[in-house]
Amino acid sequence: MSTPKRIAVIGVGSMGSQAMWRLAARGAEVIGYDRYAPGHDRGAAGGETRIFRAAHLGEPGYIPLLRLADQLWDRLQEESGRELRRRTGCLVMGATESPSIRTLLSSSDAHGLDHEVLDRAALARRYPQHRLPEGHTAVLDREGGIIRPELSVQTAAGRAELLGARLRRYTPVREIVPAPRGGVDIVTDEGTDHVDTAVVTAGPWINTLLPDLPRVVDIRRLISSWHVPTTHDWFAGGAPAFVRSTPHHCYGLPSPDGLSVKIGLSRARHLPVADPLRLDRTVDPAELAVFRELIGELMPDLNPDPVRLSVYMEGYTDSEHPLVGHLPGQDDIVVLAGFSGSGFKMSPAMGEIAADLALEGTTGQPIGFLAPAALGTP
Hints:
The chain is of the alpha+beta class. It folds into two domains: about 5-50 and about 150-215 and about 320-375, FAD/NAD(P)-binding domain, CATH 3.50.50; about 85-145 and about 220-315, D-Amino Acid Oxidase, Chain A, domain 2 (2-Layer Sandwich), CATH 3.30.9. It is about 25% helix and about 30% strand. The protein has helices at about 15-25, 60-80, 100-110, 120-125, 150-160, 205-210, 290-300, 345-360; strands at about 5-10, 30-35, 50, 85, 90-95, 115-120, 135-140, 145, 165-170, 175-180, 185-190, 190-195, 195-200, 220-225, 240-245, 250-255, 260-265, 270, 310-315, 325, 330-335. Strands 5, 6, 7, 14, 15, 16, 17, 18 and 19 form a nine-stranded mixed β-sheet that branches. A six-stranded mixed β-sheet has the order 9-2-1-13-21-20, with helices on one face.
């Protein structure tokens, strides 16, 4: 019997927890390192809910990856006995003739996704809590829903541990050093561990740990804002998650307790983060003006004054495609970074792909358009 490969997973958050689970399920000797512990609120996986969508506004190449993620979300729920995802549907709204809506409709048709197009009158009847401007269309992705991020991260990491993985909590990695004779040395304050391959899923710390990335990942400060309906029937008829591409690029989800709605904004509204260890968690009242504006215009039955605010971090690339693959020139280092605010729904698929790359050196999944080397020049 061959000796199992020894794999380090650095950063046990959205992607790292799933990578640990899939690697451990495939018999690898897995060591996970996290600056804090799975489920913490110092990265992008906080805020109680994230969106799952089968349909995609942009690159159709994501649809096969979302299908794989769909299957693996079901598997993780079955293995753990926990409800990590709830299918509420997801409304995607935007200008009817915009490239994003046209791409979403054409790719949904081509891939046979379960969806329905709603014009202004149909949306007003079905989901009166949303206002749709003239010339806009809503698409109901019936396969969409909400995911519980903190619970999902802890569950995936816990499954990995049950399968034999080791998790070193509160252990920051200081350096990732390719070893002269192959493999990688993982340097922490407690010493150095040698592994066959390192899977680097370090979120906002990616630029520090991998300074040779083809592109710097732009780390941004994300505000989530929770609002209570002013009418008792805001949730009547179901309350799907939603994404708007215009006139305000935003997204929202019903809270798990059904009492409020979480709203988030696009990258353009997020301030840059110079140092992830010094994230400013204070929200200035002036930063809430855009929330008040979009609620008044598009969801006037929500109270514009939030009942809760939280601040997180996300990493973006210039292309808004993540970097997924081997670090150029380093076959023993796999990187998953810069998911640009849309990666959590795909995280189980990315965990499987990370396991493929770490154990086999390649993957059968269609990720050529995400390869770090392919994104090396602007």
